[in-house]
Amino acid sequence: MVTVKETKLVADEVIPVNAVRQDEEGVLLVAAMPSVDKESLQVTVEEGILSIEAPRVSGKMEGYKLISQGIAPVVYKASFFIPEDIDSNGIKASIKNGLVSIRMSLKEVVKPRRIAITAG
Hints:
The chain is an all-beta fold. It has one domain: Immunoglobulin-like (Sandwich), CATH 2.60.40. It is 0% helix and 40% strand. It is elongated and about 80 Å long. The N and C termini lie far apart (41 Å). The model has no long low-confidence stretch (mean pLDDT 86).
């Protein structure tokens, strides 16, 4: 099971709201990281720890002067322990509408499979 690693945060760093789900193919981790773009998102795996990090990008609108900003600039940061039955080479990440989805496949030897039965 994927578990959250305790992360020491400094000022302006926050842990994104996240959910982890597992099925027979592997694990899906979804993290809410609004105002993050693909270019600034970093997803890394090192020594059994998956880390995600990205600064919130402030939306600058052409031709407008910023008068007030209710959303503070922050850096999203979180780390997760991944189990040994995850294939770290098969981890895929995507981002859409502020939701980061990280799909982690099980190693082939761990996946449940049906055994074919032959006659004779």
